[in-house]
Automatic annotation (TrEMBL):
Homodimer. InterPro entries: aa-tRNA-synth_II, aa-tRNA-synth_II/BPL/LPL, Anticodon-bd, Anticodon-bd_dom_sf, His-tRNA-ligase, HisRS-like_core, HisRS/HisZ, HisRS_anticodon. L-histidine binds at residues 73-75, 103, 117, 121, 249, 253-254. GO terms for cellular component: cytoplasm. Belongs to the class-II aminoacyl-tRNA synthetase family. The lineage of its organism: Bacteria, Pseudomonadati, Pseudomonadota, Gammaproteobacteria, Pseudomonadales. GO terms for molecular function: ATP binding; histidine-tRNA ligase activity. It is an enzyme of class 6 (ligase). It is found in: Cytoplasm. It comes from Marinobacter salinus. Pfam families: HGTP_anticodon, tRNA-synt_His. Residues 1-334 form the Aminoacyl-transfer RNA synthetases class-II family profile domain. It catalyses: tRNA(His) + L-histidine + ATP = L-histidyl-tRNA(His) + AMP + diphosphate + H(+). This is Histidine--tRNA ligase. Transmembrane segments: none annotated.
Length: 417
């Protein structure tokens, strides 16, 4: 679990504000859920025989003896909240949330025990149009973040649960013949969650999988039509993708469309966004049958990618724009008044007031360290004359005398260049 330090928060804010802006543009509404839910909610939604429920959840008993769990993902809580507050009945919803998630995994680059997701969930829309919208939206997001061309989209259809059941049987029959050649994890999954064997990375298992039956051959007509139409919509929108028949996703609640946005720049932890359709989940959790589709993005991985590619925009930093100094006790109150007037006039600029006293030299040193472009110097002489000293800190230009009444407009002009 990581501390996110002041040097890192600007890039977090950049990602969060960009996502917020793009989602707002598409009419998505934010929902905020608790970080803790009843353990049972996750067991029933994610599935008993998934990695998350089997070995990754932070589960504890509270003082009432209830079993609670720190949320390992957001979909279950979002469905619970939406259902509980009547957001789903007879209506469509486009929701999003962001926040920490918790999984007890082996920590490594791009994989942490507390990590952050931005999740999007849409309810009440059955067709491939909303699937396509989610992918068009994410493509825009990559562009806005400067990641265009650095992520690729893989999609698949895993059909209805009946289609998957038939396929599962065929797959198990096939793999049983070569059981000894499978890795230990896959052998175990043969009984519990055989579809997950499809995305095994083990070379010997991969070799066996080459001859395995394909899920595609078991797809039901409805899922096939849905998938074909989705592909047409993506083609028309100019979204590139590849169909990956081995893409199954690890959570039980998915059906029909599944997708992942992957980067090749982060090694094994390359999935930055993953999701799909989960039409059965709301009913499974006790609600009325409600179509749903959504995705989750891993914020740490997105940030790692921005850093690796060195595409973080210059304006994303902690730098001050103006640093206002006050030389001597008598300059303190007027310096605050001046700084306030600058904040009113230059609303997008960071105006830092020097606090803590000190010599001219030490105040100028702090001004320099703030990375401000200008220091405003207010001492006894300037007070007497109604002026300030305006010192450019990043350019080889001399300090000049500016009337206090003109300072805001002088700075505003200066920041245009
Ligand atoms: P993986 O196959 O990498 O374990 P997953 O299928 O468990 O991923 P999801 O539950 O679909 O992942 O979560 C969606 C996204 O959240 C992932 O694609 C990834 O970007 C991010 N994510 C998942 N687990 C972690 C983690 N432990 N640390 C950081 N990011 C994570
Ligand atoms: Mg995982």
């Amino acid at each position: 679990m990581n501390d996110i330090l002041p040097e890192q928060t600007p890039v977090w804010q950049f990602v969060e504000s960009t996502v917020r802006k793009v989602l707002a543009q598409y009419g998505y509404q934010e929902i905020r859920m608790p970080i803790v839910e009843q353990t049972d909610l996750f067991k029933r939604s994610i599935g008993e025989v998934t990695d998350i429920v089997e070995k990754e959840m932070y589960t504890f008993e509270d003082r009432n003896g209830d079993s609670l769990t720190l949320r390992p993902e957001g979909t279950a809580g979002c469905v619970r909240a939406a259902e509980e507050h009547g957001l789903l009945f007879n209506q469509t919803r486009r929701l999003w949330y962001t926040g920490p998630m918790f999984r007890h995994e082996r920590p490594q680059k791009g994989r942490y025990r507390q990590f952050h997701q931005i999740g999007v969930e849409c309810f009440g829309m059955a067709g491939p149009d909303i699937d396509a919208e989610l992918l068009i939206l994410t493509a825009r997001l990559w562009k806005e973040l400067g990641l265009e061309g650095h992520t690729r989209l893989e999609i698949n259809s895993i059909g209805t649960s009946e289609a998957r059941r038939a396929y599962r049987e065929a797959l198990v029959d096939y793999l049983e013949q070569d059981k000894a050649g499978l890795d230990a994890d896959s052998q175990r999954r043969l009984q519990t969650n055989p579809l997950r064997i499809l995305d095994s990375k083990n070379p010997s298992t991969r070799k066996i999988l080459e001859g395995a039956p394909s899920l595609d051959d078991y797809l039901d007509d409805e899922s096939r039509i849905h998938f074909d139409r989705l592909r047409e919509l993506l083609d028309a929108a100019g979204i590139n993708y590849t169909v990956n028949p081995a893409l199954v996703r690890g959570l039980d609640y998915y059906g029909k469309t599944v997708f992942e946005w992957i980067t090749d720049s982060l090694g094994a932890q390359g999935t930055v966004c993953a999701g799909g359709r989960y039409d059965g989940l709301v009913e499974q959790l006790g609600g009325k049958p409600t179509c749903a589709v959504g995705f989750a993005m891993g914020v740490e991985r997105l940030i790692l990618l921005l850093e690796t590619l060195e595409v973080i925009p210059d304006h994303v930093n902690n730098n001050a724009d103006v640093y206002v100094t006050a030389m001597g006790e008598s300059a303190m109150a007027p310096a605050f008044a001046l700084a306030e007037s600058l904040r009113s006039a230059l609303v997008d600029r960071v105006v830092v007031s020097h606090c803590g006293g000190g010599s001219f030299k030490s105040q100028m040193k702090k001004a320099d360290r703030s990375a401000a472009r200008y220091a405003v110097i207010l001492g006894e002489n300037e007070l007497a004359n109604g002026t300030v000293g305006l010192k450019p800190l990043r350019a080889d230009e001399p300090q000049r005398e500016v009337l206090q009444s003109e300072l805001a407009s002088v700075l505003s002009e200066a920041f245009k260049h």
